[in-house]
Give the backbone structure.
Amino acid sequence: MIELQNVSKVYAGQDGEVRALDHVNLSIQRGEFVVIRGPSGSGKSTLLLTAGGLVRPTEGKVVVDGKDIYTLSSRERASFRGGNIGFVFQMFHLLPYLNVLENVLVPTISGARKSDRTEAAELLQRLKMSDRLHHRPSQLSTGQRQRVAIARALLNRPRVILADEPTGNLDPDNAAEVLDYLTEFHKAGGTVLLVTHEQYADEYAQRIVLLQNGKISFLREESLKPS
Amino acid sequence: MIELQNVSKVYAGQDGEVRALDHVNLSIQRGEFVVIRGPSGSGKSTLLLTAGGLVRPTEGKVVVDGKDIYTLSSRERASFRGGNIGFVFQMFHLLPYLNVLENVLVPTISGARKSDRTEAAELLQRLKMSDRLHHRPSQLSTGQRQRVAIARALLNRPRVILADEPTGNLDPDNAAEVLDYLTEFHKAGGTVLLVTHEQYADEYAQRIVLLQNGKISFLREESLKPS
Ligand SMILES: Nc1ncnc2c1ncn2[C@@H]1O[C@H](COP(=O)(O)OP(=O)(O)OP(=O)(O)O)[C@@H](O)[C@H]1O
Ligand SMILES: Nc1ncnc2c1ncn2[C@@H]1O[C@H](COP(=O)(O)OP(=O)(O)OP(=O)(O)O)[C@@H](O)[C@H]1O
Ligand SMILES: [Mg+2]
Ligand SMILES: [Mg+2]
């Protein structure tokens, strides 16, 4: 489904180049649940952003369903992302001028269905955000912003969820609720790439990828379990 | 040292008022290590911001060393904070136009000592940031930004550290390093108020405060252990 072929990403740093990804080869199958772990600064966010069509690799290809996504125009890539990928960003990236409900409905802007508003309200209810629907992001706690970012990624029933540390600011109960969501999404056939420092997803994941200084290795590699 | 007397904080929400703190009475002794826990949205950040002189309570007083800090002018309060409190914000709040080293040195702007730069470099080395000293925050990973925010709070040897979820974006090794820091600071006589969802500080803390819907209770309350 998503294949990183010999992907490297080099940033221009102030003290010389930073090689955030170093010749990464990783093939995520459709319907797989993969956990990505590694020390702070090891390249996890860069891996997710590259795999999701948001950050162009310096070298190598990202091929999704046979399509080399960085040969697309940025408009084509945006519509490809909108139709396929739900992204939970590590720093949320909510739109400050929209309220909670509007932020969750952003992915539907290009084609809203009648049922979207009710679905958004249901997602937010499950994430215990029903009494904050009209708040702006600045009127929310950090963990509440994180939950809005998660609801936004899930709304459009994407085929793939790329989640970057989605529970870093959540207490154990809220974190468990988020993981339940991701496992349900996966059981319904979705593909999940989850970056997390927590151990809670390990027993469920089919593969655990370790990133260290931009290089990957496999902490666990199993053929796809029938889920 | 820091005493919250009948403190309430009410925000104007979109769907009515939000009582983030509800008649909180909490007295933190000098040299104490207190952990604050509670569900997302329960009022932890508001408690820290109120105790630290940054958010004025709607009702009640915050008395530090006998001084009612919200009767001070905002300039007096700022210099009081600068001389006494090291703040680790949940969203870091680094200055985007300064590099890592400059951000850590911000607390010393009002009176830099010769030794500050070397101390800043030592703190950053211990937090494994030596090879990013000249990067801007936008050129860092999220956990790296968090570590810069921690170094900045520690630099001026404040008397009190107020840390809001300082390890949410860190892997276990980096998180352990931060906790080591806080315990060393405490052993040297510092006062620590640590908001965290993690359990790692529990055995060390002298008191564990639980916040639920703005109300506090004590999960553990001990007289000050000789540390
Ligand atoms: N500016 C604001 N306007 C309205 N409501 C607010 C504002 N800031 C915070 N709140 C509300 O006050 C409550 C407490 O917020 P606070 O940030 O203190 O929670 P928290 O315990 O730190 O949460 P988290 O663990 O998610 O960081 C939340 O329910 C939040 O929605
Ligand atoms: N714009 C940039 N310019 C220069 N270096 C960068 C830039 N963005 C990231 N980096 C560097 O690339 C490396 C990988 O960053 P990345 O954000 O992918 O790490 P991460 O594994 O997600 O870390 P964390 O767990 O702290 O979120 C880091 O060392 C960081 O300093
Ligand atoms: Mg990251
Ligand atoms: Mg908070």
Notes: Confidence is low (pLDDT under 50) at residues 223-227 of chain A. Residues A 44-45, 90, 164; B 141-142 surround magnesium ion (ligand 3) (CB under 6 Å).
